[in-house]
């Protein structure tokens, strides 16, 4: 758990806006980006304009995710996700999962493609 807390960044993390619209903004945390060969791990955050709901969990307004990107195969998987009651990952931690998900291809012209490009080619 201590390692997870250290990896998740602090309130003073430097988030760089990657994209967004009137419903949500997405940020990447380049300070914690780690590259190992063709693989990159990067935290990103989705900050919603209005609270979102999932059955069984209190309304959340931001989501932090640690994703791993395969730069050669153009695929990604989520390693950690946490839901927060406040903007920019602040407030109460409402739920989360800290287990690697399945590898997924990166669809073109999506936010995931933008994050992949930032992680793999902007470093």
The averaged pLDDT comes out at 88
**Which CATH class applies here?**
Mainly Beta
Q: Look at the helices and sheets and give the structural class.
A: mainly beta
Succession of helices and strands: HEEEEEEEH
| Percent helix range | 10-25%
The tally of strands reads: 7
CATH structural fold name: Lipocalin
Q: What's the domain count?
A: 1
Q: So, CATH architecture?
A: Beta Barrel
Could you write a compact summary of the structure shown?
The protein is mostly beta strands. The protein is built from 2 helices and 7 strands.
Describe the structure.
The protein has helices at 2-7, 111-121, and strands at 16-20, 24-36, 39-54, 57-70, 75-84, 93-97, 104-105. It is mainly beta. The chain has a single domain, classed as Surface-adhesin protein E (Lipocalin, Beta Barrel), CATH 2.40.128.710. It is globular.
Can you tag this structure with a few keywords?
123 residues; mainly beta; Lipocalin; seven-stranded antiparallel β-sheet; 14% helix; globular; disordered N terminus
How is the topology of this model organized?
Blueprint: H1 2-7, E1 16-20, E2 24-36, E3 39-54, E4 57-70, E5 75-84, E6 93-97, E7 104-105, H2 111-121
Antiparallel strand pairs: 1-2, 2-3, 3-4, 4-5, 5-6, 5-7
């Amino acid at each position: 758990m201590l390692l997870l807390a250290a990896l998740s960044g602090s309130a003073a993390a430097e988030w760089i806006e990657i994209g967004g619209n009137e419903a949500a903004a997405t940020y990447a945390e380049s300070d914690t980006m780690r590259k190992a060969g063709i693989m990159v791990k990067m935290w990103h955050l989705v900050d919603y304009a209005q609270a979102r709901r999932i059955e069984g969990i209190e309304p959340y307004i931001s989501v932090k995710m640690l994703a791993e990107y395969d730069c050669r195969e153009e695929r990604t998987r989520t390693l950690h996700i946490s839901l927060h009651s406040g903007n920019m990952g602040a407030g109460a931690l409402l739920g989360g999962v800290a287990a690697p998900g399945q590898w997924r291809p990166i669809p073109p012209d999506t936010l995931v493609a933008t994050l992949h490009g930032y992680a793999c080619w902007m470093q």
